Amino acid sequence: MASRSILVHVAALLLIGVLPFAAHGGTVHYHDFIVKETNVTRLCMTKSVLTVNDSFLGPVIKARRGDTVYVNLHNQGDYGLTLHWHGVRQPRNPWSDGPEFITQCAIQPSTNFTYEINFTEEEGTVWWHAHSDWTRETVHGAIVVLPAEGTTYPFPEPDGEEIIILGAWYVGKLNLIVEEDLAQGVNMPNSNGYLINGYPGDLIVECTMRQTYRWVVEYGKTYLIRLVTAVLDAEVFFAIAGHNLTVVGMDGAYIKPIVTPYIAASPGRTMDILFTADQTPGLYYMASREHQSEDATVTGFDHSNATAIVEYQGNYSYSGTPLFPDDLPVYRDFKASEIFTAQIRSLASQEYPVDVPLDITTRMFVVVSMNVIYCDDSCQSGHEILSTLNNISWLDPPVDILKAYYWNISGIYGDFPDYPPTWYNFTGDYFDDSIVFTSKGTKVKVLNFNETVELIFQGTNVLFGSMNHPMHLHGQSFYVIGSGYGNFNNETDPLTFNLVNPPKLNTYPVPKNGWIAIRFRADNPGVWFFHCHLQHHQSWGMAGVFIVLNGDTEETSMRPPPPGMPSCPSWTIPFEFLDSDMKNIS
Ligand SMILES: [Cu+2]
Questions:
Q1: Centroid of ligand 1 to alpha carbon of 268 (angstroms)
Q2: Would you place residue 209 in the very low, low, confident or very high pLDDT band (cuts 50, 70, 90)?
Q3: N or C: less crowded end of the chain, CB within 10 Å?
């Protein structure tokens, strides 16, 4: 990892016009991320993938709460990309949030851009990943946010730490395959194998190569596992044979401890997990496999079981294969996923209080659905599969939303509706064409500063496509105050809301044929993406944007753009915007 001290880098920072200060008096760290194509062999096949600093997995960023991290991304690859700091609030600083077409255009090959990441509220494990195309397949890594100087964990200090990254591997050049599938309007590829810390493990059947990650532990010690679900396009289960897990943090916030034999994780989810090596010394598999929530007729998914080995240190004799976790739920164990997820609660203590908004100023009802659109000769069946929010499939604009908003460029986006265009039996079995068919659009919901938002995400069974949709919001975590199955009932369901200790997370699954209710205060001015974190749904348009307007003061307003924001190659700057400000960022 290219990490150096502040002193060494003051000159370099000044050269690129970035002043090295941390808003909350923390330490400033500086990293160089060199992105380039590198040959990697998995599942008996070598392919060229994008890596950061020649490494798959990518480098770990380590900071304390209150610190600031600069990451200078040097793109030495063949196509443009962006990076996102998943779970980091980035107060007033959407400029460094990263999603392509939302807060920036891609960093083009042979250019660089310096991200500024501000760690203010989050503590625990979060992560970073590419936020353009499907590049995050291999361009991702963990972010460890330690407690602020002079503070500690709300649990006994662990004896050690271990980062565990759950990933997925695809055969072939993924971005090219996806581009073709999108053009054809057909389904996108399933992964060919799941990974733990970059390796598929011992149990792969397709190939003779055994690439297995090993973690050596000491008997009697307690470790903090920092788990990142970097899987691109599926939910997963994870367990360690013979050992319970104690989940103490999620999405960069502490939670009430959950003692559990397995966990269920949406793509994008991070967890802090205490693990005590207290079993008979030996070898134990940790394993992950897909949690598949689609219709039972859908069988073509990645059935692989990724494994890694937990190895107790010391002198003992062990023969045979490691124990496999019996408690790892099977692919379609929807109940297991539900049971785990239902246990998540905020700490809600004096030190970690809950601040769920009680007076709501904006209510939204957002229908999360699969749909289709007629397409021209370019696609196979005459129909193109799309995913929608309130029957709009997100269409990437020619210039990112943040630039369009900041410089008042008209004609780039319209209003995202607070309600669906039609009310129907969302979770029924019959849908007429006006519901099945959709259209593409670039729609943005504008919120005044400090508005309090309650948003119901309602899943549907349109095209018999009901499944879990892990919805992710940039720029702030949200309280999940309720969830249920069937159609949301606005009279009875609010009576079940948890306003006492609801979990505060940045990603949460809208359950198959069900709904969730979330609340947040719009107190982070900027432009913030929200989308399903299943990658193929995001690509099909299950996405929208919040613009949180500035408040009355500088502290409640967006910061000005940093120098060197990447230009948008497919957008020609209209003459009236060719002033000096615009030249700086275009
Ligand atoms: Cu989805």
A1: 12
A2: confident
A3: N
